[in-house]
Design a protein that fits this description.
The structure is a homotetramer of 351-residue chains.
Chain A (H helix, E strand, L loop, with lengths): L17 H10 L11 H13 L5 E5 L2 H12 L4 E6 L3 H4 L4 H6 L3 E5 L8 H9 L8 E8 L10 H14 L2 E6 L2 H8 L14 E5 L9 E5 L8 H7 L8 H11 L3 H19 L7 E2 L7 E5 L2 H9 L5 E3 L3 E5 L6 H22 L1
Parallel strand pairs in A: 2-3, 2-4, 4-5, 5-6
Antiparallel strand pairs in A: 1-7, 6-7, 8-9, 9-11, 10-11
EC number (chains A, B, C, D): 4.1.2.48
Protein name (chains A, B, C, D): L-threonine aldolase
Family (chains A, B, C, D): Belongs to the threonine aldolase family.
């Protein structure tokens, strides 16, 4: 298959990047102890500790739904609540997983324009009710970058963590595309996480080029107590753990995690730049990660579909395009050309 | 690494078999829709339907803990109970996962000599209490082969399913090593499952040569209603599903699932045969699958450890050896030789 | 204590009405079998069946949080969702109980002006998403009367149940103050429940004059299967059940349930009527049940507090007054007089 | 009804004692704030603090199933386990409630002759497994007196709490009949609870003469953090709390709790003494509380049934008789006489 078939409906459409694949191949030699007692798991955990310059506790889960839900469940009890944005993946796309893993913790959602929580929104939700009839807020979760591709600055995270500490809340970061945020910010992973006050990070591997797998990093080891039991009970402990861990070694030890993310981000910018002057088309959000959300007339979107493009749409006319580690720039250009052509088509149709 | 390093503490120590690997490699080309909308997932499900000669509903989960727990949870409510053997993996080694996924379903355990449930044991547990203060029995789960390597015959399963139907119980089969049971029985998978009255089967891929992944087969489609939502909520829906599905294609379409199991079983028999005359050593259970449990003096076990062998032991002196798709017969022979030498050593020590 | 001490912050402030008390006293004679095997429990269930002209299944729970949550949990699985109004008690005041009892079912809230769901709002929520990443809608819950005291007409409920049937949703009614709705509508309980398409009703006893206790009525017996086990497991099966059941006998057999509700409703109307011309004060909602929500200047509310009145307030200046079976009309008049005086006071303060 | 109708199948058959009733009557005057903000709740909590000579945290739940399950859930996470006797009520008669409230905590049962856990049994269960595949022991629960009526001595509890502290386990006491244990021991409640190392006590009110209600006492306030939210979410917060609290005032402030228990215990002893010489009949357990378990021939039991007696029987021929605060000694004598007559009858039948 060549890049002509690439679709940008989701960054989950891409396969396994060479570095992750090579590490799996290296790991697939002979025998190794099960359940994380192997060398690859140790090496992957150490790679995270080095990358974050922190002796954190590292766990591996199969996917982001589980990683986020387990992390949140470990930070609160069933009668507590979790503050998040109304567009947070945990609220909109995990089929009630956070509530399931926590046995009932309620999500308190703040309506936000761009998916970013603010200190004020957190304060409002955390202090709006203090009676026993309402679940007590205990955790804040932010998605970095947000589901629409905006990246919290270090200062923004510091401000959020300050209000969290003031109000006795823990701060969790859903980093399904954490690498893309780092690529955008050009900062050390530590600066935008524990140094900025994040307690727990779910670092996404799948969207970064792996087949499967997310890492959960507890920067405060005390919060990780018995988390291994929690993973096991919840069906998230891989028996042949080396195959969940080795790809991380491949990604982290040679910088593929960042290269992949930078490439995906650049493809997003490439599309955004290419359509900047196209009539009736405009980005719905600043393009900071690997996503481009375009507001466009339905006729244009219909034109794109007729050309074979697949993408998610949203109420009000938006279309989402997500780029991956393997996106071919030529294919982005082809999309941009079709958008341009579609715009003309749509204008003629409307005339 | 050569086979000199092979250990038989667990069949999870083995890696990915060539057929599964090749399929993953084939799948890692270009883009594919996420969450099971891809061709590989369809093809894997169809392969199961062909293998079982049944238009069953097929789901893929990451590991056996999740597959079994989700299947059991789908068959009962929190106030129901699940009948199993006292040595069932769901009771002894899943850290309360069945209780967690079902939100409280209790396991009712029957003490059994060989890990096999009997119709009488099921009847006793299912009818012992009928008051509201005790969770109502709704499901029977059997492990095929049992955790100690015994294989239910088709007639035994038929007898169990008959009592299940009589008492209004569903029948679940934990087939973490289902392939090994088929290899032992030499029967069609259908004969030992749905044709014998099994409602749901969890077919293990990991111990059969895959990196990760179990399949859940509902032979009665009505029981599978909304099971896809259940998997999603519980963190068991892979985004890049093709990598969970493709290995199954590699395993099923060319018979690797059965070849792998036969090889593992033969290695177990090879060991059992080789130590048949060794003094003070005897199999604790009939060797029907890929496991050999040996009763042996502690001095002998100590000797083996000194030679570098790793294995699990049990109260009373037993040692477990599990063989995999890649077990080198020469390595089995080396173990047998060490057992023989250890026996002599132990006898001298005792003298 | 005389009525001078009565407060209208909540209808839970009232005690046990004479009819409920007398029945408890009658029940407190000699010995009776436990766990609902007694005559009082049978008699109470029969009284419900007679009142509703329906051979329904009747269960008794300790409070409304449990009754509603158990009923909802019985109508869906953890990966399903429940449609409710944004002001529904299950959403705002049960500390995540529905999510806890159901092990994760998400509430989908419709913003409503008056707390009433509409067929269109239900349709929008039920059909907005149909992908696996979002919990599948399975139940609609309406509060009758709503938390702000509006009563669904029979026609409104029929329209809601029609859309429920069309979309495969079950219809649950939170009747914490169901008696007050019947008193307002002047209809048979059957007309506003099962005859209008309601599947399950939680009929509140506490706010109607009992010490404790709610009844759960399944109009479709099939939905009640094993619900007794569900109650038991969830800590809602009273051992000395006669004391939970007898008050219902006292309430239902002689019409106290309706008399109490009528009295409370009349008191609400009495207050509303009395302040109709008071400057700067107006009802926030139509007064149809036993609640009056008043929009009033903060200075007026402060004045009322200074006179010793207790009440809940809401963002934007609202104050809630709830009337009970024992409310003394003279005390309502006293409140009205103080509101009038407070209005004058507030106007002078503002001048 | 006169005492001729008294049955001893359960101490839940008895009604409400005069002291509890009078307190409820006193509480049923005028209005009182809801959800425990009333004076009666404060007074009841204070009465417990005085009785236990300890500034403990006190909560009120509707029944023992909930009280025990909530307390255990507060002491562990879903992946932890609870050590109990095989005859513990939480294991045998709560329909999986502990697993439900805790979202999956497994009960580890020790087979015991008399229902009493021993330090050795606890140690064995707590240290038998330490791998991640088995839920980590975190709590020990003992029933005082046991389900068969044996009372732990202070020294026994001290020994148990010592091993708990050593192994990092919390100690919970199911005191469904705690008063009866105190009556038997003749000690201060503090001596057999917190002074002996108990962390949390569920003090049963129902079997002690109340209509409904159990108290949960946290002797270490830190363990009680947010327990009020836990109760609320789990449907155990009474709105008209005064009616759950007032009976405790009636029971505790004037010693009724102890008088009632002493009376019940004496009735048990009265029966045991009266049948001491009866042929073929013997107590199965020492009579220390308000229960008498008799081993007797089936013909004798059949004779008793024919005389109208109701009682629970057990595999192997045992019959249980439980005595309450209101048991008429003459009725005990009547039972004893019938046992004597039944014995003669059974011997003749066997001859």
């Amino acid at each position: 298959m060549t890049h002509e078939s690439q679709q940008f409906a989701s960054d989950n459409y891409a396969g396994i990047c060479p570095e992750a694949w090579a590490a799996m191949e290296s790991a697939n030699v002979g025998h190794a102890p099960a359940y994380g007692e192997d060398d690859w798991t140790q090496r992957a955990a150490d790679a995270f500790r080095k990358l974050f310059d922190k002796d954190c506790e590292v766990f591996f889960a199969f996917n982001g739904t589980a990683a986020n839900s387990l992390a949140l469940a470990s930070l609160c009890q069933s009668y507590h609540s979790v503050i998040c944005s109304s567009s947070a993946h945990v609220e909109t796309d995990e089929c009630g997983a956070p509530e399931f893993f926590s046995n009932g913790s309620k999500l308190l959602v703040a309506s936000t324009a761009d998916g970013k929580l603010t200190p004020q929104a957190i304060r409002d939700l955390a202090t709006g009710r203090s009676d026993i009839h309402f679940p007590k807020p205990r955790v804040v979760t932010i998605t970095q970058p947000t589901e629409t591709g905006q990246v919290y600055t270090i200062a923004e995270i510091q401000a959020i963590s300050a209000v969290c500490r003031e109000l006795g809340l823990k701060l969790h970061m859903d980093g399904a595309r954490f690498a893309h945020a780092c690529a955008h910010l050009g900062c050390e992973p530590a600066d935008v996480t524990w140094r900025a006050g994040v307690d727990v990070l779910c670092f996404g591997g799948t969207k970064n080029g792996m087949a499967v797998g997310e890492a959960i990093l507890f920067f405060d080891p005390a919060l990780a107590q018995d988390f291994d039991y929690r993973c096991k009970q919840a069906g998230q402990l891989a028996s042949k753990m080396r195959f969940l861990a080795a790809p991380w070694v491949g990604m982290l030890e040679n910088g593929a995690w960042l290269r992949n993310a930078r490439h995906a981000n650049r493809c997003a910018t490439r599309l955004a730049d290419a359509i900047i002057e196209v009539a009736d088309v405009e980005p719905m959000f600043p393009v900071e990660g690997n996503a481009v959300f375009l507001r466009a007339p339905e006729a244009l979107l219909e034109y794109l579909r007729a050309q074979g493009w697949r993408f998610y749409t949203f109420i009000g006319g938006g279309a989402r395009f997500m780029f991956a580690w393997d996106t071919a720039p030529a294919r982005v250009d082809a999309l941009a050309a079709d958008i341009r052509a579609g715009s003309t088509f749509a204008q003629q149709a409307a005339a």
